[in-house]
Each structure stands twice: as C-alpha cells, then as structure tokens.
C-alpha cells in the first residue's frame, strides 16, 4: 500500500494562482482568436510587366496574378458554381478592376484581349451550366479635352452540354482602343473583368458544376509603337493557358 503524501501548502497556493490566471487569460485568448479569424482586408497589389504596371485587389475570387511580358494571368482556385439534387440555379460571380499604366516612355496602350477557360461536369437530364464574361476598359486620362473614354465587350460560352465527364470550356473577347473615334490609345486605364458562372439541377440525383481553371484568365496589352503585337501576345496567352491545362 502506498501512502498519499499531502501537497505542501506553498504548492497548493501556486496551483490556485495558476487556475485564477487561466480563468483570466482564456477569455482574452478566445477573444483575440476571434478577432484574428475575421476576414483580412483587401490588399492592393502592383506588379510590373515589360512596358506596363498592373494594380489590383488580390482578395477576390480571381486570386493572385503572374505577369509575363505585358500580360497578366490570374490563377483562381475557388471560382466555382455547383448544384446538386434539384437545388436549382447556383451562381458564382466576381468583378475585378485592374489599373493599367504605361511605364515605358513614349509607349501607350492600344489593345486588350481576355482569354478564359475552365471545366464543367453534367450528370442528369435537366442539369445545365453556363459561363459568361465581360471586359470593360475605361480611360483614367482626359484626352483632347473630353471626358474619359470607355468600351466594353462580352462573351457567352456555348455548347456546354457534354454529359458524364469533366469537359473543358473557353471564352474570349477583346477591346481595341484604335476602333473608337477620338481614343486610339491611352497611358492609364481601368480594365474591369466581370465573370459569371451558373450551375443548375432540377431533380434528385443530378449534379452540375462549372469552374475556372488555374492560369485561365489573361489580360493582354499592346504598347505602341509595335502595331499588331497584340496578336503575338495573344498567341503567348493561348500557349500559357494550354500549359496550365496540362499541369
């Protein structure tokens, strides 16, 4: 038989102090954890290409960007709409504003190309998905004493009907400042990308989802005086999108 030796009075006193301290610290720690778990504020990021800079908010569904030459690529990882078991239409939408500035002396911006891609899955007779996008470019400078110019173009992806297997989709559109009377080119603009994804199921047992894929969003600019270079940049964009698909 073992005898239980009583704790010294001094040790018991210290234990009581620690208990009281824990009762004070624990609520404070919980409050701090709750405070830091709040969503982080939007972060403005500026990245630099060969002849232009891009400033944008990285706290959106588009995520962070990579820049190659005068092209900017976003790598969304959670831009997805999914509907299951007759849940009806589920949508995912986001808008991103990018300030684009010419940084090479004597150069200006004259064209933009937006190329996007992703994949989708349909399972069920009434399951459906859709994808659309919009690119708008608005001047931040006053040209020829007139109000800032702007132009917008949209795309809608068709043919999203394949059943039973994940299938790729893509869409593109562009804005050419040279086609707008009085504009032609610019050195400081806001390029706004708006994207909409939708997945719909109407019956139990059905599934539909659609998402953007990493590396699928690109913004291309063509600095003057290199006419026609936008198509070279566009070819590079398509090659990089293909590379992202194979990853």
Walk me through what this model shows.
The chain is of the alpha+beta class and 247 residues long. Strand 3 and strand 4 form a beta hairpin. It is 19% helix and 45% strand. It is built from two helices and 13 strands. The strands form two sheets. Strands 3, 4, 5, 7, 10, 12 and 13 form a seven-stranded antiparallel sheet that branches. A six-stranded antiparallel sheet has the order 1-2-6-11-8-9, with no helix packed on it. Mean pLDDT is 77; it is low at 1-12, 17-40, 215-219 and 226-232. The chain has one domain. It starts with 8 loop residues before the first helix and ends with a helix.
Average pLDDT, all residues: 77
How many strand units?
Answer: 13
Helix content: 10-25%
Structure classification: alpha+beta
The H/E string reads HEEEEEEEEEEEEEH
Q: How many helices in DSSP terms?
A: 2
List unreliable stretches of 5+ residues. 1-12, 17-40, 215-219, 226-232
Principal-axes geometry comes out as elongated
The largest sheet is: 7 strands, antiparallel
Provide the domain count. Answer: 1
End-to-end gap: 68 Å
Gyration radius, to the nearest Å? Answer: 27 Å
Beta-strand residue percentage:
over 45%
